[in-house]
Design brief:
The structure holds two protein chains of two kinds. Chain A is an all-alpha fold. Chain A contains five helices and no strands. Chain B has nine helices and no strands. Classes of the chains: A mainly alpha, B mainly alpha.
């Protein structure tokens, strides 16, 4: 019974934003690359990446791969945004 | 606040003693000052759990900094490396607190049971064109036919319900990297299927820009 209620709740939530879900999935698919960095790879470089961004460095090469992962991975993106907020001038 | 360079931080933290204690105290102060800024999107200082969470995270950060000191590569600023550690710790704590009691049983179901990943709402809205409906049908079919039940469940959790990957990993007895890989494989399958059917995702995006 609880499972049915959870499922119903989920369906109702997704129906509140009818067209954003396909758009969200399509966005992730469009951004998908054959080879992507792992969360570990990105975490290792996250502080250096954030520093480079704050210095206004152009995003290319390895940095572009990190940016791509951050576009797709909600957990890593949250950590990146939190780190950026901490690094900006107190 | 003294200005230590990277070498100085590592040198002072490496060995136990009064220098290490002073350095740790300095780091603690900086983390306590900066962490509220980092967490502001998820946690208000007015939240009763705020003080405890930030304090715990700062403590845990110092422990982890000492433990992982040898992994610091010296390429960026030391304090940013420390901030990064504190962010991971604090956000994982927040995620755990938020999702601990939420039922995600569908993640652990065997076989093809459980709710399907519904990518489109039941009835198409009046604004929906025939084209959009067809794309949604193609996407739904791809999801139903190309993905394993586990991939569907993980995708639903992460993309629709906004469950953190850490939390999905915990429920599956797995780790974040493995969940990322599971989803990456799923995305590749869907992308390939749509492209082969003549619906390259990149070109369809503009139709769903709301």
């Amino acid at each position: 019974m609880k499972r049915v209620l959870d499922w119903l709740r989920m369906r109702l939530t997704s129906q509140r934003t009818p067209d954003s879900m396909p758009g969200k999935v399509l966005f992730m698919l469009a951004a998908t690359r054959d080879k992507e960095l792992s969360c570990n790879d990105v975490y290792r470089m996250l502080d250096q990446f954030a520093e480079a961004i704050l210095r206004g460095k152009p995003v290319k090469g390895f940095m572009a791969s990190i940016a791509q992962h951050l576009e797709i991975c909600p957990d890593c993106r949250e950590e990146y945004e939190a780190l950026l907020a901490m690094m900006k001038a107190a | 606040m003294t200005d230590r360079d990277n070498k100085a931080w590592v040198r002072e933290l490496e060995k136990p003693g009064p220098q290490r204690e002073a350095a740790l105290e300095e780091l603690r102060a900086q983390v306590l000052r900066a962490l509220p800024r980092g967490l502001s999107r998820w946690l208000s200082p007015n939240n009763p759990e705020f003080d405890e969470l930030v304090e715990d995270a700062a403590q845990e950060t110092l422990l982890r900094v000492l433990k992982q000191l040898h992994t610091f590569e010296g390429k960026g600023q030391f304090i940013n490396w420390v901030y990064k550690i504190s962010v991971r710790i604090a956000l994982n704590d927040l995620r755990g607190r938020k999702w601990r009691n939420v039922s995600l049983d569908f993640l652990q179901e065997e076989g093809d049971e459980g709710p399907a990943f519904q990518v489109a709402s039941g009835m198409s809205s009046p604004e929906s064109t025939a084209e959009r409906n067809e794309i949604m049908q193609q996407l739904q079919r791809a999801i139903n036919e190309e993905l394993t039940a586990k991939q569907r469940a993980a995708m639903m959790a992460v993309v629709i319900q906004g469950v953190p990957m850490e939390e999905v990993a915990r429920r599956l007895g797995s780790n974040r990297n493995a969940v990322y890989k599971l989803l990456h494989d799923a995305r590749k399958k869907l992308k390939s299927r749509l492209e082969k059917a003549g619906f390259p995702p990149k070109e369809l995006l503009s139709m769903f820009d709301s």
